[in-house]
């Protein structure tokens, strides 16, 4: 096996970490914009604009989960990452339906807004469950810190509908979600580096 082959097999790819980290970092301001602009603007953008910007973290997180699934060595972990990517993609599809296809509840047909919102909620639920399944897989494979970050992300995502009753609580919940994805992105390289070397040829 050449040095390059050895690094390819045992070295952790950087893409999942970068994509998940950037997704988590952009999640927080995008969600804050969504939460505070129903009747106004923030940084020059209104409610619909911030919702459309939510596609940025959702696309980054989807791509990060896909990259992690491709790099994972064990089947259960690959499946968990793939389902997580599906949840992010569904949420992004819901946003696109509601705010790009339909124009949002404030400026488009109510039926399309409801359809998009439903798909978004489904995506959030799939994401939460997948994060908890991923946490169980990472708890067995390590590192434990990555498993803990996935647990926090999953529980905080499940708690979001209740947290949304009060803005300050919802904001804290969304910051927790974003930071959890950042932490998972930072720690995931250790998990992905635990790949079994394969024989050449």
The helix tally amounts to: 8
Q: Please give the domain count.
A: 1
Given helix and strand content, the structural type is mainly alpha
Mean pLDDT: 89
Bin the strand percentage: under 5%
Gap between N and C termini, in Å? 9 Å
User: What is the C-alpha radius of gyration, as a whole number of Å?
Assistant: 18 Å
Order of helices and strands: HHHHHHHH
Q: What global shape is seen?
A: elongated
Q: What's the story with the biggest beta sheet?
A: none
Number of strands: 0
**Quaternary structure annotation:** single chain
Please mark out the parts with pLDDT under 50 across 5 or more consecutive residues, or reply none: 1-10, 196-201
Helical proportion?
over 70%
Descriptive account of the structure:
- Keywords: Membrane, Transmembrane, Transmembrane helix.
- It comes from uncultured Propionibacteriaceae bacterium.
- The protein has 201 residues and is an all-alpha fold.
- The protein has one domain.
- It is 79% helix and 0% strand.
- It has 8 helices and no strands.
- The protein starts with a helix and ends in a 9-residue tail after the last helix.
- Residues 1-10 and 196-201 have low confidence and may be disordered.
Question: Descriptors for this entry?
Answer:
single chain; 201 residues; mainly alpha; disordered N terminus; disordered C terminus
Concise account of the structure shown:
The chain is mostly helical and about 200 residues long. About 80% of the residues lie in helices and about 0% in strands. It is built from eight helices and no strands.
């Amino acid at each position: 096996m050449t040095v390059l082959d050895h690094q390819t097999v045992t070295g952790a790819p950087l893409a999942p970490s970068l994509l998940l980290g950037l997704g988590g970092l952009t999640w927080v301001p995008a969600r804050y914009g969504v939460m505070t602009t129903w009747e106004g603007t923030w940084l020059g953008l209104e409610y619909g604009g911030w919702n459309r910007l939510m596609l940025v973290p959702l696309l980054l997180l989807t791509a990060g989960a896909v990259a992690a699934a491709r790099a994972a060595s064990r089947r259960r972990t690959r499946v968990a990452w793939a389902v997580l990517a599906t949840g992010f993609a569904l949420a992004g599809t819901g946003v696109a339906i509601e705010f790009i296809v339909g124009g949002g509840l404030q400026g488009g047909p109510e039926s399309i807004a409801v359809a998009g919102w439903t798909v978004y909620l489904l995506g959030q639920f799939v994401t939460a469950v997948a994060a908890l399944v991923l946490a169980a897989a990472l708890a067995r494979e390590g590192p434990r810190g990555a498993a803990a970050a996935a647990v926090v992300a999953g529980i905080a995502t499940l708690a979001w509908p209740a947290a949304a009753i009060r803005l300050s609580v919802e904001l804290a919940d969304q910051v927790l979600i974003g930071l959890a994805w950042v932490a998972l992105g930072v720690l995931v390289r250790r998990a992905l580096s635990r790949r079994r070397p394969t024989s050449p040829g």
